[in-house]
Specification:
- The protein is an alpha/beta fold and 498 residues long.
- It has two domains: 333 residues, no CATH class; 110 residues, no CATH class.
């Protein structure tokens, strides 16, 4: 007896069309087996597993520290800060309000519940984008196991980017936008929900241009689909939100200057050699390229086998994949865009899913969110010089602390307003000449005497291998004494007391 098989094709807008081969019978589903029951139960626990993995990771991003301190100042001020408070040679200069709403929100959470609460809050934001688009795919008919597979693969691809930082809000907002497009609500409802989301997104994290790109693709594909079949709907919501997203780029306290700020940030990031701004094929990004390539190949195999895809979904994913290949910092957005592609491709026409209690995934998430911070307190990456900074705090100094620029953030968080910094991780804060000067110090072209004359530092906190010429001069100087050396080679020098 011949087994019946079904193929699923798709129109430009993503409408699924089931096609039977000649001589095949009607598609039908079998009974739910014990294996399928356990697979369904495991599928609904995937979100809780994602949260557990994220909460067990160390805090590694150096910039979150200055962002939290700036968030505290924003909260105390009652709004964005207009003048530079941290950089010693830029005090009082105009300060861009990049990500100000995220900084204030995260600072409020840490002030209320410490690092443990902030870990949970940030993880829920970061993962919320994935869960939102997955829930929308499920609502649109994607299979439970297919959605779980999509979440697992997308999470695997994006995990190297995960740390506590404002980009988590960007993940949440992009996921919500993709979910809104998946739900295909009435145009006015979609626009009413999407417009404030886009404005909030840009104030949480200046990446709403990613949303504009996705919306533009959905609008273009919808228009082509309408030209092919005039009985279908016009992409009114996607087109309107594309315009709103472009306008939202400037809907921050920075206004049109955000373009110059972003351009400077990109230019300085590339000049310094920040790996997240570099292509996937450079040696520093090879380990990040592995999960990206693996997910691309697995997804390609799934889609070619089932022939189930939505043109707009695939085009958005391809556009973001190209951007990720050129600059790894877009990997998170690409991973989010892969959820609907994988969920649609892996779904089956023949499915008889087990009934799973609605409370099960909610209870699992709540248990992980509450219990994990208690059993696994916050851990910080060994690359963060927290022990060195704690030792420097015992000296009760006031003034500028000269440090390797990645350490500027932790120094600001621990010591402001007593301490100022020479450099920190805000690439847009310092001009091209200043970054060249920093490179001159690290390579020994600028001597210790010039560094002292420029910043009048009260202390140095540097990695002696990375900043070997300066560390060597400090070790030989009769005017400076080393008070601490960490196992990671970070050394702390203060003026010798005579």
């Amino acid at each position: 007896m011949a087994h019946s098989r079904c193929r699923a094709g798709v129109g430009l807008s993503g409408r699924i069309e089931t096609v039977k081969a000649p001589g095949e019978g009607r598609c039908s589903g079998g009974g739910t087996s014990a294996v399928r029951l356990w697979l369904d139960r495991a599928a609904v626990l995937v979100p809780a597993g994602m949260l557990l993995v994220l909460l067990l990771r160390r805090v590694w991003d150096v910039d979150i520290f200055w962002q939290l301190k700036l968030g505290e100042i924003i909260l105390a001020h009652g709004g964005p800060i207009a003048r530079e408070p941290f950089a010693a040679l830029h005090l009082g200069e105009p300060l861009p309000a990049v990500g100000w709403l995220a900084q204030a929100s995260m600072a409020a959470v840490r002030m209320a519940g410490g690092w443990g609460a902030l870990r949970v809050f940030d993880a829920l934001c970061w993962l919320g984008g994935f869960w939102a688009v997955a829930a929308a795919c499920r609502h649109r008919g994607a299979g439970r196991q297919a959605v779980a597979l999509a979440l697992t693969l997308a999470f695997f691809a994006a995990l190297p980017t995960a740390s506590i930082r404002p980009q988590s809000f960007a993940a949440l907002c992009f996921g919500l936008l993709l979910a809104l497009l998946q739900l295909r609500l009435r145009p006015l409802v979609t626009i009413a929900l999407g417009a404030p989301l886009l404005v909030l997104w840009q104030n949480f994290h200046p990446s709403v241009s990613i949303g504009a790109l996705a919306l533009g693709i959905y609008a273009a594909v919808g228009l082509l689909d309408w030209l092919r079949d005039r009985t279908g709907p016009l992409p009114i919501a996607a087109a309107a939100l594309t315009v709103i997203a472009i306008a939202a780029i400037f809907a921050t306290p920075d206004g049109f200057s955000i373009l110059a700020i972003s351009a400077t940030n990109a230019e300085m990031s590339l000049a310094i050699g920040a790996s997240e701004w570099r292509p996937l094929w450079i040696p520093a990004n090879w380990s990040n390229a592995v999960p990206v390539l693996a997910v691309v190949l697995l997804t390609l195999r799934i889609v070619l086998r089932t022939r189930r895809y939505g043109a707009a979904e695939v085009l958005v994913a391809l556009a973001l994949l190209a951007m990720t290949a050129l600059a790894y910092r877009f990997a998170l957005f690409w991973a989010l865009s892969m959820v609907p592609v994988i969920a649609r491709g892996a779904s089956s026409e023949e499915r008889d899913e087990a009934t799973i209690p609605r409370w099960l995934p909610v209870v699992a998430l709540a248990l992980v969110a509450v219990v994990t911070p208690l059993l696994a307190p916050t851990r910080f990456a060994a690359t963060l010089p927290l022990e060195s900074i704690a030792r420097l705090r015992q000296e009760h100094l006031r003034g500028t602390v000269y440090a390797d620029f990645p350490y500027g953030g932790p120094i600001i968080d621990a010591g402001w307003p007593d301490w100022r910094v020479a450099y920190d991780g805000r690439y847009y804060r310092y001009g091209h000449d200043e970054w060249q000067y920093n490179g001159g110090i690290e390579n020994g072209y600028v001597p210790l005497v010039d560094v002292i004359a420029k910043w009048h530092p009260v202390a140095f906190l540097i990695q002696e291998d990375h900043n070997a010429p300066l560390a060597g001069e400090l070790a030989r100087s009769p005017h400076w004494t080393r008070i601490f050396r960490g196992v990671d080679g970070v050394v702390v020098y203060v003026r010798r007391k005579h």
